[in-house]
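User: Could you write out the 3D structure of this protein bound to magnesium ion? I've included everything you need below.
Assistant: Certainly. Input first, then the structure.
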Amino acid sequence: MVASVHSSGRGRAVGSTLANVPGSPLLSVRNVTVRFGGIVALNGVSFDIAEGTIVGLIGPNGAGKTTLFNCLSRLYQPTEGDIKFQGRSILNAPSHAIAGIGMGRTFQNVALFDRMSVLDNVKVGCHSVSGAGFVRSALGIGTRAEEARIEARARELIAFMDLLPFQSMPAGPLPFPIRKRVELARALASGPQLLLLDEPAAGLNHSEVDTLKGQIKRVRDLQNVTVLLVEHHMSLVMSVSDKVVAIDFGKKLAEGTPAEVQRNPDVVRAYLGTEAHT
Amino acid sequence: MSTPLQKTAIAAAQAVNDLMRKGAVAVEPAPAAPAATPAMDVATDAPAMRKRSRVLIPALLVLAAGSLVLFGGKGGLISDFQYLQLSLILVYAIAVLGLNMLTGFNGQISLGHGAFFALGAYTAAVMIEHYNLNYLATLPAAAVFCFIAGYLFGLPALRLEGHYLALATFALATAVPQILKYKHIEGLTGGVQGINLIKPEAPFKLALSSDQWMYLVVLAMAALMFWLARNLLDSRPGRAIMAIRDQPLAALTMGINTAHYKATTFGISALFVGIAGALHAIIFEYVSPDSYAFSLSVAILVGAVVGGIASLPGALIGGAFVQVIDKYADAATKQLTAMVHLPIDLEPWTIYGILLITLVYVMPSGVAGGLAQLKAKWKRR
Ligand SMILES: Nc1ncnc2c1ncn2[C@@H]1O[C@H](COP(=O)(O)OP(=O)(O)OP(=O)(O)O)[C@@H](O)[C@H]1O
Ligand SMILES: [Mg+2]
């Protein structure tokens, strides 16, 4: 959809010169275990994500889906196991380096910069693919071109997410479904290779879910973004995903095509008695 | 030891904390209707305000320089004393601006910025007194020292949030006057006595008094500092600074090295305040440990709250508040007591407290915010 905002030697260009090992998955989660004191939030979970696919991650409440996301964002450190992105372990990278290597995410409860405008929120999403520092910015020297690219990229995403009427409004007081779109635009701003979406459909009505479905597909098709989608909204996951991974109590129950996973007896059992949205 | 001043300080810290928190509840689903509370309405208006300050600053400059031509000159309408007052307002405005960068835009509270003001002031005084440096040359030195000091203080402060950070900075503010009195550096600092300076004369045989000349110097510095602040806040690092204030975890996942940014913002904030301190020493011709007591830190914080947290023009209002209050609160309280024949003796700073409480209630987003709201109401009619 658009050229990278990137100008200086920082950011994505560095990552992409270290090209992906051919044939290896974009993301590979190996035996990841996370313990919080006595709670085992994730228990030896493994799966792969191939480039250009949409993978759904499902599981009842408390299954460990968000915990896995936080491991990928390097907000949590796994007790055991490894996570490889483009064939390289990320477990030594600081959390602020994750955006730069090509992973973007949204949050289950929407974490926007509330007092900043929608436009500025999306611009912050360009942080990892731009490089203007304090001194140059304060003096206003040599930052204009990059600032213009950031501006253009942000406006493009705002248009893509139908946010034009809101762009100069503060993000905080906006209605929930709009805030979710702002967050998605912000996550796309850096042009991530892997996009992690934590329950993007929660709180949306029927037609909004349909729009979202179209947007996720377009993001994959037009920008070649690989997507890992956590969702309770079954019809959404099952219709957009190339592959579905199901977990419960931190353990992987099943992995396969949407049809296979839906038929899996363990998955059916896990969802019986819990509120399975269809 | 709990003086009324400390109580004020703690109340102010609380108020700032609350103000900052109001914008930072992203984890809660937002209300359905986009009905902002008045306080938020203004706090978020920062970009618009910054646009306005693009006009405001040059306009003020021209006005100020013009006033000098019209009313200045030896024996002009504005006395030297009044020029000094104007300079002090601008100096405090720079300090308030510096604190605002940290507290208003980055969400880190400080009750100790008087310490950086003192460091800047002493840097200037010591360099002029002992090294015979030109007073203008001391400004970059004060900037560098204060940036380093602020950055170093900001690093461990990264682990502290809200009230704990307030406490740590409070300790800093109370320690500095004691350090300045320390026996073994008396040769440099002049101990309790402090250092007396001589006010610089206007160069090039200009027909200006020292106070008029220094007013121009301070005005130019204030314009420079506001310009730098506005540029910075309007840029990639500026957005990162505000993102950290609103949602530190999300900022991290956007690729912002939050630790580095917070410490650097602390340094920049100290740099601004340090320059204010250096200018203060030069125009006041005097530094002493007790000029930089804890009350100064409180005054700067109160100035930031009164002018408007996270508002650039508000810093100017805040600077004026600090100066005017510093000068007249005591006298005004006495006058008030006499006027209404109060049967009790009011504490000297009572009017300060009354004013502060009134302002915080009437204009919760500071004077700049309050004015913006009034203007918005006016337009809607
Ligand atoms: N920081 C933490 N400290 C302690 N326990 C935690 C922490 N984060 C998650 N947990 C626990 O780990 C388990 C998995 O939580 P997680 O949030 O990953 O579930 P989830 O699959 O995202 O659920 P939901 O569908 O409700 O969002 C839960 O039992 C939760 O209480
Ligand atoms: Mg979750």
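Chain B touches chain A through 47 residues (CB under 8 Å).
User: Perfect, thank you.
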